[in-house]
Structures are given as C-alpha cells and as structure tokens.
Amino acid sequence: xxxxxxxxxxxxxxxxxxSFTEGFYYKPRVDRELLAEFGKGIVCCSACLGGEIxxxxxxxxxxxxxxIAGEYADIFGxxxxxxxxxxxxxxxxxxxxxxxxxxxxEVGVGLVGTNDAHFLNKEDKSTHEIVTCISMRxxxxxxxxxxxxxxxxxxxxxxxxxxxxxxxxxxxxxxRIAEMNEA
Length: 183
Prior knowledge:
Distance between the termini: 17 Å
Number of helices: 8
Oligomer: single chain
Strand order of the largest sheet: 1-2-3-4
Largest sheet: 4 strands, mixed
Radius of gyration: 17 Å
C-alpha cells in the first residue's frame, strides 16, 4: 500500500493501527472491509509470490486469482490497483508473470514492475544469509535454512528495465505511481 495524498497517509496509519489492534493470532492483519473503509488516497499493489493473487496462480487457480484482483480493483479503483510482476530468477515467477499479465488485461488494471529488496547490494547476499541464520538459530549448511536469490537487492533503473524488459508498461507504471498526488 502506497499513500498518494495526506489523507492516504492518515489512512495508512489507521490501517496499520487497526491491523495490530484487531488482527488475529497476534499477527497484524488487514481485511478487505478495512481496506474499503480506509482505501482513499492509497495505491495498492498485489505483492510478490507470497501474495494471495500469485499464490492462487501457483495453486493452479487462475480464476480465483482473477476474482481476487477484481475485488481489489473494486476497492481501490482500476487506476489505483496494480498487479506486481517481478523477475528475481525464481521458477515460479516464469509461471506467475504471464498469468498476471492476462489477469491485468481481463480485469482492466495496470502492471507494475517491482523487486523485493532484502539487501542493498548484490554482494551483500552472503551477509544477509548469515544474519538470517543467526536470527533463526540455524547454521548456514542446514538444509532447511532459507536460501535467497542473489537478485533480491536494490536494483538500479537500468537493472530493473533489463529484468522486466518483456513488460515495458510495468516499468512505465512505476513512474506513473510515483507521480500520483491526490493532494
């Protein structure tokens, strides 16, 4: 969620507060009802592979993914809801991205190119994995230790354009979102 106005910023703060005070099982959560109540002045993007739309695609249920995308488009408006495409080298992204493109066209929403950034520079990957192991009380050589793509760093404009060259509209929409201001 991205604020594009002062009201949007206030609504993000309200959503954050409510997610902690009304979330289930002590984990902050926001449902669609709250998003509809406090969605004004906010742009919503669909998230990475862990988001509910990509997860539905991975589970083989593109119709469910389309239905969810439609619900978010109804809440935020077709000009303020975007399906995120990413390319960090995960095989699932090769399956999910074309489906997201189809769904975006069918639902009438835009695509936006994003990149999860878990570390600042590409060469910081090993340090990040060490810190992650420490926090999870794991050893680097353990099988169940989470492995990160080396592409999860803060990419330059040129790197993002190259990474998502098949979807130039997704790159253009990042600028479109950045220029939104509903004052």
